[in-house]
Amino acid sequence: MADVKDLNRKLAKPTLDRRVSVAPMLDWTDRHCRYFLRLISRHTLLYTEMVTSGAIIYGKGDYLGFNEEEHPVAVQLGGCDPEHMTQCAVKSQEYGYDEVNINVGCPSDRVKNGSFGACLMAQPQVVADCVKAMQAEVDIPVTVKCRIGIDDMDEYEDFSRFIDVVAGAGCDTFIVHARKAWLQGLSPKENRDIPPLNYERVYQLKSQHPELNISINGGITSLEQAEGHLNQVDGVMIGREVYSNPYILAEVDKRFYGNTAQPLDRAEIVRLMQAYIERQDAPYFKPWHAARHMLGLFQGQPGGRVWRRYLSQKGTGKNPDPNLLMNGLAAMQETASKAIEYQTKEVG
């Protein structure tokens, strides 16, 4: 088993590079998830869940805390008031984040009622004012994640006008979800699937604005697809596929960043995450808070179903297994071993 301190020494803070990133996903990409994903890939850019400016300024919790090992890591902010967003950007820089991103893509009613998220695509000057104010006070990049359109504002000209106004305020990096958002009539979940993907519109944006750094997001389920997109744009952001099949990131460092170091195998990641769980001292922390992000680690592997079932059954409830991950690994390996033994007998 690798020593955690030795591992952390190897995990020197890499340079921020947006070729591959993991999307900010509410209730999913928390600090425990990001620590886990960082064990799989050293170079993939990770994003926090969206955190609102109001929560940071007025809330009592530590909404910006993260593990030092997570670098490179960006914080995504939700808000529309330039003064408040600037306060949050300054605080994010003080915490040590590598980038601050403005959410202009979330279509939920709660976000819309707060006048931020995808509805801001109809108010490009508001976004531009936030960008300008934030950039005046921080040195880290200020970026924008948006859609290709909303409701009836879904022509390329509408999209291009939004980009032009915000870029004119100094933003040079856009992460574009290649779907429009329907703010009326579709739920946030439906907005992730029902509006058709339009990758060509994002490609066109990059073609017309070679000076901008453009990342594409939406419907990307393989690294082969990512390679294809990188022939047209600067970066690829992957979302739900990484969460359901996180070990897809194991090939990213070699394929996209030229890092020839052997990635950690799944069993070693389990051991390091068990040690991570045991180090947590927050009174509210439970092993499930970290383990829930690991259900897909053995996706497509022998015993993967046993792994998921063990974590789900033994990690929840009033008396969760304190050695949850290692016992889950043992149960999975035992099942896989029996399956191999049975197959060998059948062949014999």
Characterize the structure shown.
The chain is of the alpha/beta class and 348 residues long. The chain is built from 16 helices and eight strands. It folds into two domains: 12-257, TIM Barrel (Alpha-Beta Barrel), CATH 3.20.20.70; 266-347, Four Helix Bundle (Hemerythrin (Met), subunit A) (Up-down Bundle). It has helices at residues 4-10, 31-40, 53-58, 82-95, 109-113, 124-135, 156-168, 188-191, 199-208, 223-229, 240-244, 252-257, 266-279, 287-291, 304-314, 324-347, and strands at 20-22, 45-52, 73-78, 99-104, 142-147, 173-177, 213-217, 235-238. It has an eight-stranded parallel β-barrel, surrounded by five helices. The radius of gyration is 21 Å and the shape is globular. The two termini are 35 Å apart.
Write the layout of secondary structure elements.
Blueprint: H1 4-10, E1 20-22, H2 31-40, E2 45-52, H3 53-58, E3 73-78, H4 82-95, E4 99-104, H5 109-113, H6 124-135, E5 142-147, H7 156-168, E6 173-177, H8 188-191, H9 199-208, E7 213-217, H10 223-229, E8 235-238, H11 240-244, H12 252-257, H13 266-279, H14 287-291, H15 304-314, H16 324-347
Parallel strand pairs: 1-2, 1-8, 2-3, 3-4, 4-5, 5-6, 6-7, 7-8
Active site: 106
EC number: 1.3.1.91
Binding site for FMN: 24-26, 76, 145, 177, 217-219, 239-240
